[in-house]
Amino acid sequence: MRCVLVVDDDATSRDSLAQILRREGIAVRLAVDAYDAIREIREMSFDACVADIVMPGSGFRVVSSLRALQPKTPIILMTAYDTVEMRARASENAVFAYLIKPAPPEQIVAVLKRAFEYHEALLKRAS
To answer: How far is C-alpha 58 from the geometric centre of its chain's CA atoms?
Structure first.
């Protein structure tokens, strides 16, 4: 079973996304901020990460920690506060996808499925 780390300080967003993913048969670990996410990243490997950008500790801190500890894990950043600077920073950090909240559930699931395929291909190349 695939496992996704969902990081968002907004409980409604975090819990509704977790519910959607679980209905798709995806295991989910939840984190309420970047610091909580870093603890999760140190404890286990993930097939993908979906993180809010604007939260305590910043979604970009999650990106840098995940890149350092699990460099092949695809990252999907989401934000309700889209800026040119955030898009540029996401691109510089090789973020798999950048979505604007509220993203439709079917869009998130479709992006995650592509992320899983990408992750699997990277792991095959490495072995």
So the answer is: 13
pLDDT given at position 11: 97
pTM to 2 decimal places: 0.95
Under CATH, what is the fold of the domain 3-126?
A: Rossmann fold (3.40.50)
Mean pLDDT value of segment 20-37: 97
Query: d(Cα 7, Cα 30) in Å, to the nearest integer?
Result: 6
What SS3 class is residue 9?
A: coil
Residue 9's Cα: distance from chain center in Å?
Answer: 13
How many Cα atoms within 13 Å fall on the side-chain side of residue 26? 25
Look at residue 125 and tell me whether its pLDDT is greater than 90: no
Three-state secondary structure call for residue 110: helix
Q: What residues does each domain of the chain span?
A: 3-126
Q: Provide the pLDDT for residue 126.
A: 80
Q: How many H-runs (helices) and E-runs (strands) does the chain carry?
A: 5, 5
